[in-house]
Amino acid sequence: MYFFNIEFGRSKAPTINKIPVISNPINVYLKNGASGVLTFGIKGGVKEAKEFIKSLELVNLAIHLGFNKTAVLHPASTTHSQLSEEDQIKCGVSPDLIRVSVGIENIQDLKNDFDNALKKLN
Predict the structure, then answer these.
(1) First and final CA of the chain: distance in angstroms?
(2) Can you say how many angstroms the Cα of residue 47 is from the centroid of all Cα atoms in its chain?
(3) How far apart are CA 74 and CA 60, in angstroms?
């Protein structure tokens, strides 16, 4: 699997999910209803997910997404932290989940940042 042409098969990031924009007028502009937000999990759970986020240099940790700068957040410890782990999982928030809002930075810079952070985990 690839994200920004980074091969996740050799890393700790097993899955990538595009978050569709459903019944939103902006769909006219977004091919197939997809947005600039995606999620993926880091093998190993919460500790590794947080280590990955701390290893990013260009991309910042955020408590919300949607700005023009690429940002990541760990929903289990931020936006969904008031829920029990069981309720988080029911909502689709696994302990290893990382949410990414892709901004307008140079794509090669983003590729390098994600690739370097993933390499630090392996």
Answers:
(1) 17
(2) 15
(3) 12
pTM over 0.85: no
Nearest-angstrom CA–CA distance, 122 and 43: 10
Residue 49's closest CA among 121, 101, 110, 109? 121
Tokens standing for residue 6: 């980074």
Indicate the SS3 state at residue 122: coil
* Amino acid residing at 62: A
- For residue range 85-101, what is the model confidence (pLDDT) as tens digits? 999 889 888 888 888 88
Q: Which two tokens stand for residue 23?
A: 């019944």
Region at 57 (left for phi over 0; alpha for psi -120 to 50; beta for the rest)? alpha
